[in-house]
Amino acid sequence: MSETLTSEAGTRPPLRERLAKNADGILEQIAREYGVSTFEAVEALPDAHRAIVPGSAFETILTALTAWGPVVFIVHTPDIVLECEGPIPPGTIGRGYFNLHGDSPIGGHIKAENCTHIVFVARPFMGRESRSVQFFNGAGEAMFKIFVRRDEKRELIKEQVTLFDELKESLAG
Asked: Which among 75, 95, 92 has a CA at the least distance from the CA of 83?
C-alpha cells in the first residue's frame, strides 16, 4: 500500500496508525487525504474492522443479500453520494452484467467481472456502529456499498447484523 503524503505529512500519522486510533470517518475522504484508493484505505483498517474476500464471491454475496430485507444501497462518487433503501432483488448474469430484477427501488446492471475485492466492514461511523459490504473495482474504488439498516431508534437492525456476521464468517472465516 502506498501512502502518498501531502505538505501536512509531518503532522499526520501514517494511515494504518490513524485508522487504528480512530476508524471513524468517510473512507473516500480519508483516502483522498492520504493519496490512496478507497480500497487501500479500507485495507488499512484494523483487522477487527474488515474482512476481505475475492471479487469472485460477487454472485454468492448478492444472492445472500436478497434474504436480508430492505438495506441501504450507496454509490459514492466524487460528485454524489446516492442512497437508495430497499431489498436487494434477485439477479442473473447476462450480456456481461449482473442484472438485478424485481420489485425494489434497487435495480440495474452491474459489471460484476470488474469487482476485484469485496470487504465486510464493521466500524464506527459518525460515532455509531455500522456494518457494510463494499464492492471494489480494479482501480480500488467502491463500485457500491450495501449497509445494514437502522431501526427507529437509530440502532442497527439485529437480524441484519446476524446475517452480516454469518455471511462474513462463511466467506472470510
From this structure: 75
CA 93, CA 95: separation in Å to the nearest integer?
Answer: 7
Total number of residues shown for the chain? 173
Q: Going by DSSP bridges, is the β-strand pair 97-100/91-94 parallel, antiparallel, or unpaired? A: antiparallel
pLDDT of res. 43? 97
* DSSP track, 45-103: S-GGGEEEEEGGGHHHHHHHHTTS-EEEEEEE-SS-EEEEEEEPPPEEEETTEEEE-SS
Residue 34: C-alpha distances to residues 7, 114, 125, 133, 142 (Å): 11, 24, 19, 23, 17
* Residue keyed to cell 480519508: 30
Structure confidence by residue, pLDDT tens digits, 111-165: 999 999 999 999 988 888 999 999 999 999 999 999 999 999 999 999 999 999 9
| Main-chain dihedrals φ then ψ at residue 64, nearest 5 degrees | -60, -35
Question: Going by C-beta distance under 8 Å and a sequence separation of 6 or more, which residues neighbour residue 88?
Answer: 62, 65, 66, 68, 71, 73, 100, 104, 106, 146
Gap between the Cα atoms of 171 and 45, Å rounded:
19
Summarize pLDDT for 64-83 with one digit per residue, the tens: 999 999 999 999 998 999 99
